[in-house]
């Protein structure tokens, strides 16, 4: 059974200007949040690092592999994510939304996921609260930290909560059929992997990770949407179960039909 929750990831390349360090895309943020403030479905938000977290993690050479990284870098990356998160939270408050910021540290312990804490996010949505978490540098084991992406958080939260809508808000229309073509793949069905190196898909580093996580989620029976965040009307249509431009990776149903 899926829960009546929309789990939405705001990609870093939508909410920030990725090419300019530490700059936010206020227009995109405003338009997306305005759209989200108009819907009634309970929401959980995740956001990426864009020109905040990614900028610093590159400077300090920090990756998704747990390693001993610079302590200064750990603080700086984390602080930059808090800053970006705070900008989103304040923008939401202005729109009379009820955000509640949750660092991923609070529902992870090393590699373990604290199920109770993730379930609490769902409970909070029943009070009209919108939990908002983010990709971050996280503690893994003594002296070892790693970058946990917002995309991975989407998978973790989806596995536990099984939200009815799972949406990656990206800076492109969806997954492209061909690197040179404008056409996107509307629907991906029954695939457990996609050949990233092939000519059939135009997938940048960021998109590649997104698709990988989206496929993982779909394998446990949930549909995953990838939609262009610069066209928030499309996001609205997905939330309202209307047809729109974007890619949907269909959840693999079990043979009994119960996903
Ligand atoms: O933008 C990574 O999150 P992503 C966040 O979802 C950091 O990959 C800290 C780089």
How would you describe this protein?
It contains eight helices and 14 strands. It is of the alpha/beta class and 259 residues long. The chain has one domain (3-249): Acetylglutamate kinase-like (Carbamate kinase). The strands form four sheets. The chain has an eight-stranded mixed beta sheet, with helices on both faces. Strands 4-5 form a two-stranded antiparallel sheet. α2 runs parallel beside α8 (232-239). It is globular and about 45 Å long. Residues 197-204 have low confidence and may be disordered.
Keywords:
14 strands; 8 helices; Carbamate kinase; 259 residues; two-stranded antiparallel sheet; alpha/beta; globular; binds Isopentenyl phosphate; eight-stranded mixed beta sheet
How would the blueprint of this fold be written?
Layout: E1 3-10, H1 12-15, H2 26-37, E2 43-47, H3 50-59, H4 71-94, E3 99-101, E4 108-109, E5 112-113, H5 115-125, E6 130-134, E7 136-141, E8 144-148, H6 150-161, E9 163-170, E10 175-176, E11 184-185, E12 187-188, H7 205-219, E13 224-228, H8 232-239, E14 247-249
Parallel strand pairs: 1-2, 1-9, 2-6, 3-6, 9-13, 12-14
Antiparallel strand pairs: 4-5, 7-8, 10-11, 13-14
This protein binds Isopentenyl phosphate.
